[in-house]
Write a structure and sequence with these properties.
Keywords: Signal. InterPro entries: BCAA_transport (IPR051010), Leu-bd (IPR028081), Peripla_BP_I (IPR028082). This protein is globular. The chain is 41% helix and 19% strand. About 9% of the residues have low confidence. The protein has two domains: 255 residues, Response regulator (Rossmann fold); 145 residues, Rossmann fold (3-Layer(aba) Sandwich).
């Protein structure tokens, strides 16, 4: 086995996108023709031809709860890709990733992205699990016309599309998650809920989406309270959220803030049901001091969250099963958030295969025509849609005795 090269129903919508993928492809970039397989600066790769990908992840800092999971999955998928390498035109290219720890700092993430593009000459970028670091990379990637596949939540990452032509997002759209949550809340006979939303761009998306979804579902949104920045008084926000004695509380925040918010709500003597958005899911959320606070909570998440998804026999299901088994063997447990990095790597590799080139512009064009089942769920990219997670990839789960079980 090769050594990984690392430096440090919606069926209608999918069917339409699939049926038109060919015409979209031709309109986006013309017929695929093999190109000169040189590096972006015109020089040959020193160790043979490569597909070079820059990776910015939160390996330390507030985003580490999710960032570390991505690096682990990335290593496993990279090793698999390099067994046979990637056929790009008439050459097989090794995949090499340059991993950088952005320390959960947007300014550092932007500088690293700039260096990866200008100095390292990467063909594409992937990564970041915080919306703020993602947006910092977005500005660099768009300006320097380099494809960037984001792992962070937040609809603004890919909108407005006219200003995000090189940007793609794998996480589900806030509106899709909010609609599922609102329907779930209504089906449980709950009439009034409070929203406790994270500070920042991810929370902004949640506030807009939950308000609209509650109106459509006939659920009263009693109040919206924003969590303070890390280190702020979470207890006060929790008390304010439950002051009106709601039937339930929606916590729209990524790990580790989701677990912190749940503990604060329980300390405020609130014992009603909790509802999380997809970004809340990480091992840290359900372990240690968070365990009792989040027991019984609901989450809307892509269907990769539980072992029940390992029973399928599709190519993607088999690949997912292999990833989960290897991940558990190497790290002792598996988080449903982890497959995003694997999917991002595969999508970029597939774009290189389809384009018969590692040219950044052609990679961008072929990323936006992919309709495929990944390890986290279904993606349906199009020139008019760069947030590719399909809404029918989402399921409702409840935490029971420390494990997520699908309920719908």
């Amino acid at each position: 086995m090769a050594t990984p090269a690392i430096d440090s129903s919606v069926l209608t919508r999918r069917g339409v996108l699939t049926a038109t993928a060919g015409s979209l492809l031709l309109s986006a970039c013309g017929q695929a023709q093999p190109q000169d397989e040189a590096e972006p600066d015109g020089s040959a790769s020193p160790g043979g031809p490569e597909l070079l990908i820059g990776v910015s992840l939160e390996l330390t800092g507030r985003g580490a709860a999710l960032g570390v999971l991505q690096e682990r999955a990335l290593r496993i998928t990279l090793e698999d890709l390099n067994v046979d390498r990637v056929q790009v035109g008439n050459q097989r290219r090794s995949v090499r990733v340059l991993v950088r720890d952005n320390r959960s700092d947007p300014r550092l993430a932007a500088q690293q992205a700039t260096d990866l593009i200008r100095k390292e000459r990467v063909h594409a970028l992937l990564g970041t699990t915080l919306t703020e670091t993602a947006m910092a990379v977005v500005g660099v990637a768009q300006r320097l016309q380099t494809p960037f596949v984001s792992l962070a939540p937040g609809d603004g990452i890919v909108l407005p599309l006219a200003q995000r032509t090189f940007i793609y997002k794998l996480t589900p759209d806030a509106v899709d998650v909010a609609r599922r949550l609102a329907r779930l809340i209504s089906s449980r006979g709950l009439e009034r809920v409070a929203l406790l939303a994270a500070d920042g761009l991810h929370g902004d998306s949640g506030v807009r989406a939950v308000a609209a979804a509650c109106r459509a579902a006939g659920v009263e949104l009693d109040r919206t309270v924003r969590l303070p920045r890390t280190g702020g008084d979470v207890a006060r926000a929790a008390r304010e959220a439950v002051a009106g004695d709601p039937d339930g509380v929606v916590v729209w925040a990524a790990a580790p803030d989701s677990g912190t918010a749940a503990r604060a709500l329980r300390r405020a003597r609130w014992r009603g049901p909790l509802f999380f958005d997809a970004a809340a899911v990480a091992e840290e959320t359900v372990e240690g001091s968070n365990a009792a606070a989040v027991e019984g909570a609901y989450v809307v998440h892509p269907t990769c969250l539980t072992d029940s998804t390992l029973m399928g026999t599709t190519t993607a299901a088999l690949a997912r099963r292999e990833l989960v088994f290897r991940y558990i063997h190497e790290y002792g447990g598996f988080s449903g958030f982890a497959p995003y990095a694997s999917d991002a790597l595969q999508l970029i590799a597939n774009a290189a295969r389809l384009a018969s080139s590692v040219d950044r512009g052609r990679l961008r064009a072929y990323l936006q025509t992919q309709v495929t089942e990944g390890m986290a769920g279904w993606y349906a990219f199009a020139p008019i849609r760069h947030g590719g997670m399909e809404r029918d990839s989402l399921g409702v789960y409840q935490l029971t005795q420390g494990s997520w079980a699908r309920v719908s």
